[in-house]
């Protein structure tokens, strides 16, 4: 089995800074040797969370030349399926075939209300969306009556075959990714979450099969010069409090993580798990971070294509701290990883 092991940078969300900083961060990640750069999506969040990931990736395409650009995740039901197909094709062409389209269902009820979208049957619509996108990207006329599309066409087509990855924690969501997508992505790279996904993917997908990606976002704090650990912890704590305030009452992580159902209260400004350190999957010195990332690769050693995406960008007011962290990880961590393969050229 030829392994493909890559390491990316995540998640640019736009909070606590200027969106114009994003191109420099993506360029720094590329220069540092990372394989991918990821942005995310939320709506109506007071702290300025990024609402338009594909728009931002179009800007990042012009600031980079090799690194792959991913949505982690685009909340698919909030967007018209034809618009997703068209915008993704444009970003892929602008980037020379570097887009990874990560799709998910989201969990914030206020977002569905804002867009006037009924959440009922959203999982089935997502499952129908993936084959529809592949037909759309041929550039030929097609119909997808299950999504209300009849004799439509997407032009221009993308530069290549855009990989579609699906997120999710629940058994049904994970199995869906195995059946219809090119990869499965989870946003909390905790051992129990990874193992649970493996249990649901194994029956529907051969781990040795090339072309299917296991992607895990691992939240990292580097306690070393250049790591900006104090800034990272402060920014992430503020972001996590926001997440938990909108997750209340929702089964966000399928009961697999320490935050459980998200039914606790953060009205007092605290975190459900107490210290923010409980939310980092990997932390410590450069040596400890290397061991922690390699341990994630070890956990997925049966899978041919593994992407470990390091969540190292947090809502921080000073972009210089983030730039230094990316460069420090590029110098002190990436070259020491036992499992990482050489960067690949775009499709």
Describe this protein's structure:
The protein is of the alpha/beta class and 347 residues long. The protein has one domain (4-219, 300-336): Luciferase-like domain (TIM Barrel). Helices cover 36% and strands 17% of the residues. The chain has ten helices and twelve strands. It has helices at 22-32, 53-63, 81-94, 109-115, 122-136, 171-180, 191-201, 229-247, 286-299, 319-332; strands at residues 4-12, 36-39, 68-71, 74-75, 99-104, 142-144, 149-152, 164-167, 183-186, 213-222, 282-284, 305-311. An eight-stranded parallel β-barrel has the order 1-2-3-5-8-9-10-12, surrounded by seven helices. Strands 6-7 form a two-stranded antiparallel sheet.
CATH architect. name: Alpha-Beta Barrel
Let me know the average pLDDT.
93
Number of domains: 1
CATH superfamily: Luciferase-like domain
Distance between the termini: 20 Å
Unreliable runs = 260-268
CATH class, named Alpha Beta
The H-and-E topology, N to C, reads as: EHEHEEHEHHEEEHEHEHEHEH
Biggest sheet overview: 8 strands, parallel, barrel
Radius of gyration: 19 Å
Helical content stands at: 25-40%
- Secondary structural class: alpha/beta
| CATH-defined topology | TIM Barrel
Number of helices: 10
What is the percentage of strand-forming residues?
15-25%
* Topology, number of strands: 12
Instruction: Label the overall shape.
Output: globular
Lateral strand order in the biggest sheet: 1-2-3-5-8-9-10-12
């Amino acid at each position: 089995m030829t392994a493909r092991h890559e390491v990316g940078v995540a998640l640019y969300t736009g909070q606590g800074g200027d969106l114009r900083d994003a191109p420099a961060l993506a360029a720094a990640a590329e220069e540092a040797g990372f394989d991918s750069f990821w942005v995310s999506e939320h709506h109506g969040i007071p702290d300025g969370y990024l609402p338009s990931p594909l728009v931002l990736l179009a800007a990042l395409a012009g600031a980079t030349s090799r690194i792959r650009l991913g949505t982690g995740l685009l909340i698919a039901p909030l967007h018209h399926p034809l618009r997703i197909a068209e915008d993704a094709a444009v970003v892929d062409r602008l980037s020379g075939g570097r887009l990874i389209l990560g799709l998910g269902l989201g969990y914030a009820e206020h977002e569905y209300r804002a867009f006037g979208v009924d959440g009922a049957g959203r999982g089935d619509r997502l499952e129908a969306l993936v084959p529809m996108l592949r037909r759309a990207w041929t550039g030929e006329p097609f119909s997808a009556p299950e999504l209300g599309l009849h004799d439509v066409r997407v032009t221009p087509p993308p530069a290549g075959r855009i990989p579609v990855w699906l997120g999710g924690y629940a058994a049904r969501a994970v199995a869906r990714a195995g059946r219809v997508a090119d990869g499965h992505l989870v946003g909390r790279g905790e051992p129990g979450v990874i193992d649970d996904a493996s249990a649901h993917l194994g029956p529907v997908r051969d781990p040795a099969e090339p072309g299917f990606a296991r992607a895990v976002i691992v939240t990292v704090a580097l306690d070393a010069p250049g790591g900006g650990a104090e800034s990272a912890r402060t920014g992430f704590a503020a972001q996590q409090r926001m997440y938990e305030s909108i997750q209340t009452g929702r089964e966000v992580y399928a009961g697999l993580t320490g935050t459980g159902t998200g039914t606790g209260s953060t009205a007092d400004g605290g975190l459900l798990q107490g210290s923010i350190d409980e939310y980092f999957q990997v932390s410590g010195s450069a040596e400890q971070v290397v061991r922690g990332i390699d341990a994630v690769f070890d956990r997925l050693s049966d899978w041919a294509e593994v992407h470990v995406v390091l969540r190292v960008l947090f809502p921080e007011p000073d972009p210089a701290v983030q730039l230094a962290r990316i460069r420090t990880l590029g110098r002190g961590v990436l070259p020491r990883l036992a499992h990482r393969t050489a960067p690949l050229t775009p499709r």
